[in-house]
Amino acid sequence: xxxxxxxxxxxxxxxxxxxxxxxxxxxxxxxxxxxxxxxxxxxxxxxxxxxxxxxxxxxxxxxxxxxxxxxxxxxxxxxxxxxxxxxxxxxxxxxxxxxxxxxxxxxxxxxxxxxxxxxxxxxxxxxxxxxxxxxxxxxxxxxxxxxxxxxxxxxxxxxxxxxxxxxxxxxxxxxxxxxxxxxxxxxxxxxxxxxxxxxxxxxxxxxxxxxxxxxxxxxxxxxxxxxxxxxxxxxxxxxxxxxxxxxxxxxxxxxxxxxx
Length: 260
Prior knowledge:
With 260 residues, the protein is α+β, with helices and mostly antiparallel strands. The chain has helices spanning 7-28, 37-50, 118-136, 144-156, 250-256, and strands spanning 54-55, 67-71, 74-76, 91-100, 103-112, 161-162, 168-170, 177-181, 198-201, 204-206, 212-214, 221-223, 229-231, 234-239, 242-245.
């Protein structure tokens, strides 16, 4: 069932999502060679709790941490560990969620660790740009497939592949609500977009082939060919004036800059 949100509920979701953006900004200050993904997880959890919220991911379906920290070929759901130490040239996708005032915020950003290759930057740039291509079509009267198709066409035209097994989703009082929002598909297909819908659009794009492998930890998803993957996510509300981005990359970009 798709739950339509009131203006008041969307305002509360905006607060939860802005806190996610601020948390990602706090992590941006700390992402550098030598730091472990578990250290980043602890920084995030403290920041979220200090701001009156709780981590949405911690304990969700048994997930053991407050952020998903996916490095290089890991697509999503990487489990923070003291053994995973970032090094120069890595990329790390951090997916983060909060629960504040009864609503969930959810957003993700892929960071460069130190200097990375131009080839890697192009992957991140295309993935981030495809997110906004999808958001542009998140308008009442369109369908989910219009968003999906825009992301797929943008990335595949640049030589990248789209993960099939993992998709975006509705969001609200629960982290995962209807409808599913794939990053591939046909125009005119899928759920009808209506004012008051809140969805998370999150391209997961691979440098190589689209196939992925699910690791033995039960969470981490990586590319089968072990080439890099990138992941960017915004939570948006569909409104009469057009798509409203509830999350924010502004706090990250104050630290790392707008250009990847």
